[in-house]
Amino acid sequence: MSARTLTMTDQLHQYLLSVSAPMTEPMQRLREETAEMTSGGMQISAEQGQFMKVLIKLIGAKKCLEIGVFTGYSSLCVAQALPEEGHIYALDVSEEFTSVARRYWEEAGVAHKITLTLAPGTETLEKLLSEGHAGTFDFVFIDADKHGYDSYYEAGLKLARPGGLIGIDNTLWSGRVADPDDQDEQTRIIRLLNAKIHEDARVDAAVVPIGDGLTLCVKK
User: Is the pLDDT of residue 4 over 70?
Assistant: First the structure.
């Protein structure tokens, strides 16, 4: 037994992956291709992807929103977990990175479940709200530019259904949020959002120490 989360050594991490659900071949190759990129560290961890797949099945999600796609690993995981009639609205601004995502979505046979929009996130979120999507999403995943996190969270709350789940990535920020001497702008933005969610009566929330920290919020 342990009163706190175990330290994730390399050996323990390899064991964790060895006993988790295996990755499909497209998932594995997407991870490998992304890791070769200079910005490959932006990719969520393999275990977080598996965790999100279980969450999607657990809540019976059919309609999902992803704010920040990068090369598409998280959306691939979610799409594979969705039923055939399920759908993801995926938002990003990069044609370069999402072109990689589209290749693997096609290869994995889930491209028909994903609608990709390339435009500033706040613009697309406002459009979804104006088109009547408020209160209809089962799952919202936020993993985009940190300067927009608060706006994305607020829009996500409007778009999620009551009882819907909002996941926010990078909320432990490599541990920097716990260092009061770290006053980097992005660190402060995440720290402020963490404090806001902690006090937010609109949600029940928990920070899960997986990957770079994943905050889960259930909309009341």
Answer: yes
Under DSSP, is residue 5 helix (H, G, I), strand (E, B) or coil?
coil
CA-CA distances (angstroms) from residue 105 to 1, 10, 20, 88, 194? 40, 30, 22, 12, 32
- pLDDT (0 to 100) of residue 40: 66
**Kind of pairing, strands 87-92 and 114-118?**
parallel
Pairing state between β 214-219 and 114-118: unpaired
Report the phi/psi class of residue 132: left, alpha or beta, with left for phi > 0 and alpha for psi in -120 to 50: left
Asked whether 136 and 173 are in contact (CB, 8 A), the reply is: no
State the residue for tokens 């500033």: 120
Residue type, 5: T
Look up the pTM and report it.
0.96
| DSSP secondary structure code for residue 192 in this structure | H
- Other beta carbons within 10 Å of 210: 18
Residue type present at position 185: E
pLDDT, tens only, 77-136: 999 999 999 999 999 999 999 999 999 999 999 999 999 999 999 999 999 999 999 999
Instruction: Return the residue matching tokens 């920040």.
Output: 68
